[in-house]
Amino acid sequence: MKLSRLGEDRTVAALVRRLPAGPDVRVGIGDDCAVIGEPKDEQWQLLKTDCVVEGVHFLRSAKPADVGWKALCRAISDIAAMGGTPEHALITIALPRELDFSWVRELYNGVRRAARAFDVGIVGGETSRSPGPIFINVALTGWVERRCCVRRDRGRPGDVLFVTGHLGGSLTRKHLTFQPRVSEARWLTNHFRIRAMMDLSDGLAADLPRLAEASKCGYELWPGQIPRTRGCTVEQALGDGEDYELLLAIPPKLAPDLEKRWKMRFPRLALTRVGVLTRQSSRNTPHSARGYDHFAQP
Amino acid sequence: MKLSRLGEDRTVAALVRRLPAGPDVRVGIGDDCAVIGEPKDEQWQLLKTDCVVEGVHFLRSAKPADVGWKALCRAISDIAAMGGTPEHALITIALPRELDFSWVRELYNGVRRAARAFDVGIVGGETSRSPGPIFINVALTGWVERRCCVRRDRGRPGDVLFVTGHLGGSLTRKHLTFQPRVSEARWLTNHFRIRAMMDLSDGLAADLPRLAEASKCGYELWPGQIPRTRGCTVEQALGDGEDYELLLAIPPKLAPDLEKRWKMRFPRLALTRVGVLTRQSSRNTPHSARGYDHFAQP
Q1: A237 touches chain B (CB under 8 A)
Q2: Which DSSP letter does residue A159 get?
Q3: What is the ipTM of this complex?
Q4: Chain B touched by A59 (CB under 8 Å)
Q5: Cα separation of B190 and B265, whole Å?
Q6: What is the model's pTM?
Q7: Each residue of B74-102: pLDDT tens digit?
Q8: Whole-number Å distance between alpha carbons of A142 and A48
Q9: Å from A262 to nearest chain B CA?
């Protein structure tokens, strides 16, 4: 069966069955990052890999420094989504022979800028030729205190769902210049019992069902409440993807305190209730927006 | 300047200047792996990223299970080259929409077989669409005892150079089915003071100068001594690449003992003296074979 028919989620689900993990793997495939460590260690290591591909995640006409920023910051956003701090990165690039060196130099300037901004060490890399598009892969390590580590599969019915920032409109330059929410996630996990969290990369309409399913919950989404980037419709806010904002679930009695303290700590970034987790049977997916599927026909 | 004119080594050298690393980075860009840890830690972590690209490292007609084996084993070979043990892997795949799922399933069967053979946990992955060739990236962690960690830049004039196995002929199926030398490297670093080591991925003619330059040495290579795969010329043994054998430098007075004990421990795998490291000024590069450069014109 062609991948375009099977779709991304089913392809991944079929592939990762029966893969050997290991006794020190606290969280394996299926969350934003892998979590490595013994159950009682004070700190755990986070591991993440991610790629950007020309023609899928960026166009050749994009500023190469923006592409480098995006390549590293996507992985940083996943480390943030676990409550962690990014640490060391390895960069793989596959490049066409006819590419000009100045493009690659600018790409690395963007990578370096992101590395400095989030205190990431670039410790290795690999260079290959590509007979087609430019490929950039980032492997990133990080760490998180055990008590701050947040998975996506621990949400419970009744938990309130919040998102940071505003959603939609990623196809403007935003998808190349976003800010991963590292300090926001660190603050959240240090001060509140966050039950479940993930970063929004494929759009709320695709990502919320993943968080709910992992947590064995249903969900209720309130479309009118979704914070939209200026000029965006609800459909766009649900389905554009590449927001790199946080989606989190928190016990309802903590929600008012969170809202109050968030406003004082991050006055310039919205934090908005968009729904609740429910019992599994109940599913409320308003609108037809479906989020991004890599293998779906355009 | 086009990458094809600049060449691979000069491209990489220009890119990695001024990249931030970090205080806990023992070995950064330029060796087979990055080495992370405090100077006095008993164990250090190894980090490696590596990719295989359709049309560069394999053809679509190759068995996908072989491609999966190769993708993971290339990175395992780099962990071995530092004296380390591989641990956790993250797999990124970028795939054309029209690809059949059975191809990807077989690819993962090869990855799984290699993971089992070398006790590697597959802890994460990422799937993307590719508008061109199939692209597979492996990020791999490992560990090494501080006293067993071997870099490529500690060779000294007078050290004897050895290679394991037989070189050349990679364009037969060998480049897809090779065995990374993990147990051999572990034995070497546990029993001998190996001064410098690396794995041979681009051919002895390209890789030996890298080891010598990193060690601030020259070298003398004895072409008549190079162990050749059956049917291969000296040129092919020097330049085909993708041997994934070990190249190592050892103090001359240890060499006879190494040869004797190796034969008893690994009777079915050759270990051959191929030259010596010399003072920097002396450089003896016989033959015109140059090894593999990703960006050179074919």
Answers
A1: no
A2: P
A3: 0.89
A4: no
A5: 13
A6: 0.92
A7: 999 999 999 999 999 999 999 999 999 99
A8: 8
A9: 32
